[in-house]
């Protein structure tokens, strides 16, 4: 039997975020400010182009403006840094996104450290990592981690005191997500490739977040009734269909609620990025819809 778990779709979450963005962008527009995201793309990888297209499509629809630096695959570190510094210095640019991964000859740590923290809408600069670690409201978390929290909150999944098991400890998903969920008073367990008895860690949780990057690693034996499951993984299966880190077909009839792969967390990530751009525009122009000043 399949199809009994509540589907937590990303579209519903994104639509909700967009309603909030519309009023904030409208207020900024009334003060002559158009939130603006500068994209820095090195090379022409399919993943980057796909992400760029979806960001621009969704962003322009809500009133975010885009500019683009397209750099060739053999760009030098200096040339890339000059492009980023130019965007840092521009008062017309509120957010900067450097598509990653970068080619191996480029120093990604230096790149992430160079982006001005207020404009670092991808949340990868050391300053933002530290602020998120501290639980500061000024920290900008990576969009996927923030997207997972947005999904859980939108669907009113209880987090305070809940046992949450996160599988994956990357800097873009697992680690920052653990900090955000601690901030929601969850009891967080972080698992990774060296974790022993992973099945025990998932079965004891109220909420399981899979950010592993291994297709359909988690089958029905990892879950028990009543759980909420967020599947961050995205993979193309042998037959061309999209699958996650969780074997959704096998798990769907066991757990309480689950995110689909298509139209799941990934679709929220894009909207969260736009939200970060709007927040950056508010902070940099010291304007927001409530009239508060964010120096
Ligand atoms: P990563 O490769 O940086 O990290 C994977 C993590 O999984 C590591 O911490 C590793 O220790 C852990 N892991 C690997 N094998 C394991 C195993 N057998 N058992 C337990 N833990 C194991 O990956 P990432 O960048 O964090 O991405 C994770 C997944 O999320 C990928 O499938 C990626 O495509 C997807 N992703 C989706 C979005 C989105 O917007 N939906 C964004 C980023 C990443």
How would the global form be characterised? Answer: globular
Largest sheet: 6 strands, parallel
User: Could you name the ranges where pLDDT drops below 50 across 5 or more consecutive residues?
Assistant: none
Strand order of the largest sheet: 1-11-8-7-5-6
Total number of beta strands? 11
Beta-strand share of residues: 5-15%
Rounded radius of gyration (Å): 19 Å
What class do helices, strands and sheet pairing give?
Answer: alpha/beta
Distance between the termini: 55 Å
Number of helices: 10
N-to-C order of helices and strands: EHEHEHEHHHEHEHEEEEHEH
Give the averaged pLDDT, no decimals. 95
Instruction: Give the helix level as a range of percent.
Output: 40-55%
List bound small molecules.
nicotinamide-adenine-dinucleotide
What does the secondary structure layout of this molecule look like, with pairings?
Elements: E1 6-7, H1 10-30, E2 36-42, H2 46-62, E3 65-71, H3 77-89, E4 95-98, H4 108-114, H5 126-134, H6 143-154, E5 163-167, H7 174-183, E6 187-191, H8 198-203, E7 207-210, E8 228-231, E9 235-236, E10 242-243, H9 248-251, E11 257-258, H10 265-285
Parallel strand pairs: 1-11, 2-3, 2-4, 5-6, 5-7, 7-8, 8-11
Antiparallel strand pairs: 9-10
Helix pairs in contact: 1-10, 2-10, 6-7, 6-10
Bound molecules: nicotinamide-adenine-dinucleotide (NAD).
Nicotinamide-adenine-dinucleotide binds at residues 144, 167-170, 172-174, 191-193, 195, 198, 211-214, 217, 232-234, 265-266, 269.
């Amino acid at each position: 039997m399949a199809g009994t778990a509540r589907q937590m779709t990303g579209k519903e979450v994104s639509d909700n975020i967009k309603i909030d963005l519309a009023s904030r962008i409208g207020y900024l527009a009334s003060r002559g400010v158009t939130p603006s995201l500068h994209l820095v793309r090195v090379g022409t990888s399919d993943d980057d182009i796909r992400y760029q297209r979806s960001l621009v499509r969704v962003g322009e629809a809500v009133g975010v403006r885009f500019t683009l630096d397209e750099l060739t695959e053999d760009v030098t570190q200096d040339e890339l840094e000059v492009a980023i510094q130019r965007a840092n210095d521009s008062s017309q640019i509120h957010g900067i996104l450097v598509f990653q991964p970068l080619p191996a000859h480029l120093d990604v740590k230096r790149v992430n450290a160079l982006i001005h923290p207020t404009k670092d809408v991808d949340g990868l600069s050391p300053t933002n990592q530290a602020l998120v670690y501290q639980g500061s409201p000024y920290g900008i978390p990576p969009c996927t981690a923030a997207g997972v929290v947005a999904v859980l909150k939108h669907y009113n999944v209880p987090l305070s005191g809940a046992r949450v098991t996160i599988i994956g400890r990357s800097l873009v998903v697992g680690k920052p997500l653990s900090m955000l969920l601690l901030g929601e008073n969850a009891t967080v367990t972080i698992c990774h490739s060296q974790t022993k008895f992973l099945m025990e860690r998932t079965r004891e949780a109220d909420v399981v977040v899979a950010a592993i990057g291994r297709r359909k690693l988690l089958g029905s034996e990892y879950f028990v009734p009543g759980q909420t499951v967020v599947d961050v993984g995205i993979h193309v299966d042998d037959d061309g269909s999209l699958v996650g880190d969780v074997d959704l077909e096998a798990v769907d009839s066991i757990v309480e609620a689950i995110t689909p792969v298509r139209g799941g967390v990934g679709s929220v990530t894009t909207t969260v990025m736009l939200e970060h751009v709007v927040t950056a525009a508010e902070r940099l122009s010291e304007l927001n819809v409530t009239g508060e000043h964010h120096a």
